[in-house]
C-alpha cells in the first residue's frame, strides 16, 4: 500500500487500484508499472536541473539569429506614429 501525502490530503493506493485502472483502460500496463515503482519508492526520483549558463551564452552572437533591422517600411511606420501623436497633441492643446 502506498500513501501519498499532499499539503492538505493524503491518498492511499494499492497495486490492485492500478491494476483496476489498467483493466478500465485508463492506464497502460507500462504506465501502471512505472507509477507503482515511482510511488512505492523502489526507485529514487532524480532531480533534474537545467545546465548552468556560461558567460559565452550571453556574449557570443549566434550565426542563426536574425537581428532586427530598420527597413524603410519600419521607418514610415514610426514616422506615422510620431505624426499622429503630434497631431493629437496639437488638437488637445489648441482645441
Give an overview in words.
There is one protein chain. This protein has one domain. The termini are far apart. It is built from 4 helices and 2 strands; from the N terminus they run ββαααα. Strand 1 (2-5) and strand 2 form a beta hairpin. The chain has 95 residues and is mainly α. The longest helix has 23 residues, at 72-94. The chain has a two-stranded antiparallel sheet with strand order 1-2.
Q: What characteristics describe this protein?
A:
95 residues; mainly alpha; 2 strands; two-stranded antiparallel ribbon; single chain
How are the SSEs ordered, and which strands pair?
Layout: E1 2-5, E2 10-13, H1 15-23, H2 29-39, H3 55-59, H4 72-94
Antiparallel strand pairs: 1-2
Helix pairs in contact: 1-2
Order of helices and strands: EEHHHH
Total tally of structural domains: 1
The outline comes out as elongated
Q: What is the count of β-strands?
A: 2
Alpha carbon gyration radius: 30 Å
Unreliable segments of 5+ consecutive residues: none
* Major sheet description: 2 strands, antiparallel
How far apart the termini lie comes to: 79 Å
> Which range does the strand content fall in?
5-15%
Tally of individual helices: 4
Order of the strands making up the biggest sheet: 1-2
Look at the helices and sheets and give the structural class.
mainly alpha
Mean pLDDT: 78
Give the fraction of residues assigned to helices. Answer: 40-55%
Amino acid at each position: 500500500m502506498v500513501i501519498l501525502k499532499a499539503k492538505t490530503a493524503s491518498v492511499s493506493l494499492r497495486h490492485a487500484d492500478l491494476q483496476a485502472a489498467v483493466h478500465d483502460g485508463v492506464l497502460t500496463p507500462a504506465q501502471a508499472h512505472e507509477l507503482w515503482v515511482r510511488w512505492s519508492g523502489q526507485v529514487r526520483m532524480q532531480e533534474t536541473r537545467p545546465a548552468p549558463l556560461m558567460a559565452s551564452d550571453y556574449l557570443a552572437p549566434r550565426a542563426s539569429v536574425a537581428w532586427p533591422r530598420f527597413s524603410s517600411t519600419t521607418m514610415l511606420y514610426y514616422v506615422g506614429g510620431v505624426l499622429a501623436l503630434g497631431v493629437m497633441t496639437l488638437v488637445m492643446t489648441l482645441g
